[in-house]
Amino acid sequence: MTLNILIVDDSAVMRAMILKTMHMTDLPLGEIYQAANGQEGLDVLNQHWIDLVIADINMPVMNGEEMIDRMQENPDTKEIPIIVVSTEGSKTRIERLQYKGARFIHKPFSPEIIRDTVRDITGIGVSDE
Amino acid sequence: MSEQLKEILSRVAGETLEKLAFMFSFPEDERGTMILDSAVAATISFAGPFSGTLVMTVSNQLLPELAANMLGVDDEETTLDQQHDALKETINIICGNLLPAIAGKEVVFNIDAPVIIAGVEAIKKAIEDHDNKPASIVKLNIEERDCDLFLFINGKFTLAS
Question: Does the A3-92+111-120 domain belong in CATH 3.40.50.2300?
Answer without folding.
Answer: yes
